[in-house]
Amino acid sequence: MSFLEIDNLSVSFGGLKALTGVSLSVGRGEILAVVGPNGAGKSTLFNAVNGFVDVQGGSIRLEGKELTRMAVHKRATLGITRTFQNLELLPFKTALDNILMGLHLKIHTGLFSSAIHFGKNRRMEERAEAEALGVMSSLGIRFCRDSPAGSLPFVTRRMVELARALVSRPVLMLLDEPSSGMNEQETRELGKVIKWIRAEYGTAIILVEHDMSLVMGISDRVLVLNFGMKLSEGPPDRIKRDKQVQEAFLGKSYDDAGG
Amino acid sequence: MILQQVVSGIALGSIYALIAVGFVVIYKATKVINFAQGDLMMIGAYVCYTLITQAHLGFFTAMAISTIATGILGFLLERFTLRPLLGSPLFTVVIATLAISILLRSTATMIWGANELHFPMPLGEQTLSVADINFSSAHVFITAAAFLIVLVFSLFFRFTKLGTALRAVARNQIGSVLSGVSVERVFSISWFLSAGVGAIAGMLIAPLTFLKIDMGNLGLLAIPAAILGGFESLPGAIVGGLILGISENLSGLFLPLSVKRIFPWIVLVLVLTIRPEGIFGEHKKRKL
Amino acid sequence: MSIKSGNSKLYLREDREKRSDWIFFILVLPVIFVLPLFLGSYSTYLCNLVGIYIIIAVGLNILTGYTGQVSLGHAAFVACGAYASALLVTRLHLSFLIAMPLAGVITSVAGLITAIPALRLKGLYLAIATMAFSFIVGEAIVALSDLTGGVGGMFVPNIVVFGYKISTDRQFFYLLFPLVILLCLAAKAVGDHSRIGRAFFAIRDSEPAAEAFGVSLTQYKILAFVLSSFYAGVAGSLLAHYLGMIGPDNFTLMHSIQYIVMVVVGGMGSVAGSIMGAVFISLLPEGIRIVKDYLPEFLRQEQELHMVIYALVMLGFMIFEPSGMYGRWLRIKYYMKRFPFNKKKARIFKRREIKYSSAME
């Protein structure tokens, strides 16, 4: 049995079918890239795993545990974290505070302890801060610990989001177009970071991505979606040669934006 | 008895609807609830009163002048207080309209004093009885005016170029800007229209309620009507107003007076508890 | 007139407490406590009212500033605390020291009940629903005249602590201010460094992010309502016993607006800001009284002039200083810090023009 098991998943909005019968399995510590033209259902697949959209049919299981109808915040307790395509940071809070937010479930202090900020809460906060700073150093963003997230450059904000998702040592990370807004060099760096994350934390990573060089460079497997259905699935080399995939969109040029 | 309550409920509902139209016009274009709407209404009524008693104008002349004057006031308020807030968080704008409300109220008190004034009836007071049900002329007048105004505004939005621009901005601001509609001007115009319509409502209601500074509170009571009607639709304002007016009057038969006084608010809380987006509003989920 | 709420153009850092803050605090503390020795009775009375307003504003800031849930009906919570405490003392003959926290708890329950319909509401609808709630509470006070004295109001006895009667303004000051400081510090600690505070801010800035990292929106929104109304309840209790007489006129929509204006004018999301806002707004009428004598005759209607200036101050802050007094203070601090080299960095704080950003959603 694999780690994340998606079986015959169907999602529709109103009458519009966003996903039809998609099945998928992801192993522990595997990097899976989801690609496809705009509107192919990539983000919907993500949001279904994360719990932001209601699923009409099929099931999602993580380590044999049924997720399909679980509330979003409950899924987080199982070790699923994510980044957002349109960056959902707290713009007025410092980068450090943003990353500490990722440790919400790892800190266990009650209201009274928080209100006096002494003893248990202080210890826990200090430990969390050390942890967050460690991740910031690893990702090379320690310099911005005290800058409000909203004032940071776009790429740095992406890295802050990544750090926020990483700091709780998740078992599964969902990266929604992590390279969008990055130039070639930054994208290459990102690829290295993602591989490092897997090596260091053993996290399974699913990413939706438009940048083919990144996808081909880091993923163990690629899932191709088209019109909400699975078009093809396999190792990057095979996908690259797949006639059907090429016809569907690889051969054509398409823009990097949206999704 | 019940039928009589329904009839006066229709009149009350028309009052709500008349005020609600003002809320709807501004909300449609700017997506802001103007908490000063009721106070613009009050200003309209006071201006009209002054024109009648001091300048000895006829009711309809005074009404026309007051409508335009209040409209211009609305225009100026938008231009100098809300225009600088374009792009601000919604909450900031709401506080600003509350400030405008306080400003209008206290300025009016400075000018006209805090006493209630007797506003002349435009058509004299007559009561028509059909099968034991009393129709007062003022009520009939208000109901007719409410329907007429909604009709005129609906036609305006549908068939004039300006109306189309207003609707376009309501639909999609960026798209309208790109196709050459000046959003700023549309905002100004909708404030002008809404203040004008508020003034008309004020002048029609004042004979029934006396002319007083806190007419604005009555204005707030029309917010539930607007929400019942979906907040974006003019016919919805009529429907919402009538539902509210009739049910409020009927509630007076069975429930204590204190419930009747805050009936619109109770209805509002119930409606929002069941359907957080209002009865006709659509649920929008944020895209990730 | 954008739709996007809680997202200003200025990315001022919401400052965490630093050592300099503590030094400031330790310096200010003795000043506060010797203050009444030098003040007359009326000034002490004003200080006491300001202290009560600080509690309300700091509490409302937890709900609106931290969590982003607008409340236009906070006076209803204050009323709830005031009447609860008054009734506990007069009818059940409880000691004030029990009645006050109990009034806070009772008001928290009211907050919890309000939170349930409010959970699913956003933006304007939430503002209107809380407003509706305050009208309903206002009417309930009138209707339950057997208990509350209705429109005429009710008498509330002086505070008795351990057999010692608190009757002068100065005595009340020394009872009130330790409590004010305690409640402010608690609110600040929660906001500055705790998972609860971060969850609140996350809900304000991005509900999806909050959920994705394990924050239960339901639980934390309810918590924000409960905490906020606890503060309001305690403040209401103090207010009732201090004024000695309460009626529906003490808890109107105008009061609710005043409380929210304190939070906004001070600077949303910061305890220091709420304190500044409460001090500024509640002392505004006094300031007006002083300058009034220099104004032309027709402007001397005190009550109305006060309201006009009050409204203009509100508008002025919304237009020119949307990040409030605390935001201005931060900028001044920043400016001083880098004084000769301020030009370049200060640009971050310049107001960026993003018109119609709302339509992008």
CA-CA gap between termini of chain C: 14 Å
Proportion of helical residues of chain B: over 70%
Radius of gyration based on Cα positions of chain C: 21 Å
Give the largest interface pair and sizes.
B-C, 56 and 62 residues
| Mean residue pLDDT of chain C | 82
Number of strands of chain B: 2
If you average the pLDDT of chain B, what whole number results? 83
Any low-confidence stretches of chain C, pLDDT <50, length ≥5?
1-10, 344-361
Instruction: Output the helix-strand order of chain B.
Output: HHHHEEHHHHHHHH
- Specify the number of helices of chain B: 12
Structural class by SSE content of chain B = mainly alpha
Count of individual beta strands of chain C:
4
Low-confidence parts of chain B: none
Which outline of chain C best applies?
globular
Helix content of chain C: 55-70%
| Shape call of chain B | globular
What order do the SSEs of chain C take from the amino end to the carboxyl end, as H and E?
HHHHHHEEEHHHHEHHHHH
- What composes the largest sheet of chain C? 2 strands, antiparallel
- Which band does the percent of strand residues of chain B land in? under 5%
Structure in words:
The complex is a heterotrimer of chains A (259), B (288) and C (361). Helix content of chain A is 39%, strand content 23%. Chain A has helices spanning 42-50, 72-77, 95-101, 111-116, 120-139, 154-166, 184-201, 212-218, 236-241, 243-250; strands at residues 4-13, 16-26, 31-35, 57-62, 65-66, 80-82, 172-176, 204-208, 221-226, 229-234. In chain A, strands 6-7-8-3-9-10 form a six-stranded mixed beta sheet, with helices on both faces. Chain A has a four-stranded antiparallel beta sheet with strand order 2-1-4-5, with helices on one face. In chain A, strand 1 (4-13) and strand 2 (16-26) form a beta hairpin. In chain A, helix 3 runs parallel beside helix 6 and helix 5 crosses helix 6. In chain A, 47% of the residues are buried. Chain B is mostly helical. A two-stranded antiparallel ribbon of chain B has the order 1-2. Chain B has helices at residues 2-30, 37-53, 59-82, 90-112, 137-159, 161-171, 173-178, 183-209, 215-228, 234-254, 257-261, 263-274; strands at 127-130, 133-136. The longest helix of chain B is centred in the first third of the chain and has 29 residues, at 2-30. In chain B, 74% of the residues lie in helices and 3% in strands. Chain C is mostly helical. Chain C has helices at 19-38, 41-66, 74-90, 96-118, 123-143, 145-148, 169-192, 195-205, 207-212, 217-243, 253-266, 271-292, 302-320, 324-337, 342-345, and strands at residues 154-155, 159-161, 164-166, 245-246. A two-stranded antiparallel ribbon of chain C has the order 1-4. In chain C, strands 2-3 form a two-stranded antiparallel sheet. The radius of gyration of chain C is 21 Å and the shape is globular. The two termini of chain C are 14 Å apart. The model of chain C is unreliable at 1-10 and 344-361 (pLDDT under 50). At the B-C interface, helix 4, helix 7, helix 9 and helix 12 of B face helix 5, helix 11 and helix 13 of C.
